[in-house]
């Protein structure tokens, strides 16, 4: 394992183990109470262009996780086509998925690529991910098939 990858894996593992936002399920990165995107509105990334906190009274459940929305209009858009708005890799870190791991995705460290929402663990990881974006998305897509149903801790062994 190269030095950079070792550093990323070590740092991400420490953050993941210390975080209270460990996955409630396996394929969706949610808080222990099942809240996706730490309460941010999945549709607002696409419409407003920035992370926007959702209202606890406007929610939908998708893949066993609860999504909050800033408006009824955003909820309706999500309900009509959740796959278009839900984050890729269940909201786990896109760079981590490319490396074969599941680390918490930070909903404030995001990017929309070809209409899809991607999260990353931290700004420095996002910068690394963006430096080889196309290849890393292909790599993450390929890895996701085998890691989607595994708990994050299983991938650390």
TrEMBL record:
<protein>
    <submittedName>
        <fullName>YHS domain-containing protein</fullName>
    </submittedName>
</protein>
<feature type="signal peptide">
    <location>
        <begin position="1"/>
        <end position="23"/>
    </location>
</feature>
<feature type="domain" description="YHS">
    <location>
        <begin position="44"/>
        <end position="89"/>
    </location>
</feature>
<dbReference type="Pfam" id="PF04945">
    <property type="entry name" value="YHS"/>
</dbReference>
<keyword id="KW-0732">Signal</keyword>
<dbReference type="InterPro" id="IPR007029">
    <property type="entry name" value="YHS_dom"/>
</dbReference>
